[in-house]
């Protein structure tokens, strides 16, 4: 359901923009359907293994390029060795539209934005993501983040450390969050998910879906 009284846009730091309720519910539903397809293969959605033997509580599947700590490749060598699903043109269009809304219709960065990878994350009620930087890309183009399903607390910090100052922001279904410019390498994480807060009309009975669109800056050579 689209909120009756959507929250106001906010800019927690230079280059970081939160647009609540940006994605209409019909588009959220289509995104959920697409994520369901991607989650089933060629590389299944899975808990990413960390170098020291732990696993992430979030489940992830990637498009375009496969991310694992701490690099990208075309094939999911830590899962089943298969090439990841391609990054679809419609998702790049959605990313450009998102950036135009966040940074303004005249933004040159929005017009030339060409994301080539997405991390599709699924959070059940217990999943979290610790404070980290998205820094395995060889590009400083913005990250576009879309959320569907249960509400979470997204902690958006600074570029110097995992600690304060940071801002805790509730991300609800349909919210857009963009971080680029001076905020592109800010630490961020998900401290809490509120189970049962999503709208089943999105096609998700429970849990939270988050997509981050990125420019890897990588080529196949
Ligand atoms: O789930 C979120 O909102 C953030 C995801 C994230 O930071 C990541 O995938 O690197
Ligand atoms: Fe991240």
TrEMBL record:
The keyword Iron applies. Fe cation binds at residues 132, 134, 188. Residues 114-217 form the Fe2OG dioxygenase domain. One of its GO terms (biological process) is oxidative RNA demethylation. InterPro entries: Alkb, AlkB-like, AlkB-like_sf, Oxoglu/Fe-dep_dioxygenase_dom. One of its GO terms (molecular function) is broad specificity oxidative DNA demethylase activity. GO terms for cellular component: cytoplasm. It holds the Pfam family 2OG-FeII_Oxy_2. Its cofactor is Fe(2+). Coiled coil: none annotated. The keyword Flavoprotein does not apply. This is DNA repair protein. It comes from Streptomyces nanshensis.
């Amino acid at each position: 359901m689209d909120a009756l009284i959507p929250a106001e846009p906010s800019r927690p730091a230079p280059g970081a923009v939160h647009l609540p309720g940006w994605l209409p519910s019909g588009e959220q539903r289509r995104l959920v359907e697409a994520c369901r397809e991607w989650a089933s293969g060629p590389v299944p959605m899975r808990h990413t293994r960390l170098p020291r033997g732990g696993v992430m509580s979030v489940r992830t599947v990637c498009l375009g390029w496969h991310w694992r700590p701490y690099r990208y490749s075309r094939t999911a060598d830590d899962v089943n060795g298969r090439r990841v699903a391609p990054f679809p043109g419609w998702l790049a269009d959605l990313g450009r539209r998102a950036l135009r809304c966040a940074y303004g219709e005249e933004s040159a960065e929005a017009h030339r934005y060409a994301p080539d990878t997405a991390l599709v994350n699924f959070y059940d009620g217990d999943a979290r993501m610790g404070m980290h930087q998205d820094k395995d890309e060889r590009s400083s183009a913005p990250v576009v983040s879309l959320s569907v399903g249960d509400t979470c607390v997204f902690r958006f910090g600074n570029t110097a450390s995992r600690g304060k100052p940071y801002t805790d922001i509730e991300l609800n279904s349909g919210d857009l969050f963009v971080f680029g410019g001076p905020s592109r390498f800010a630490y961020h994480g998900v401290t809490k998910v509120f189970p049962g807060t999503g709208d089943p009309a999105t096609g998700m009975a429970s849990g939270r879906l988050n997509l981050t669109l990125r420019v890897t800056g990588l080529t196949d050579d």
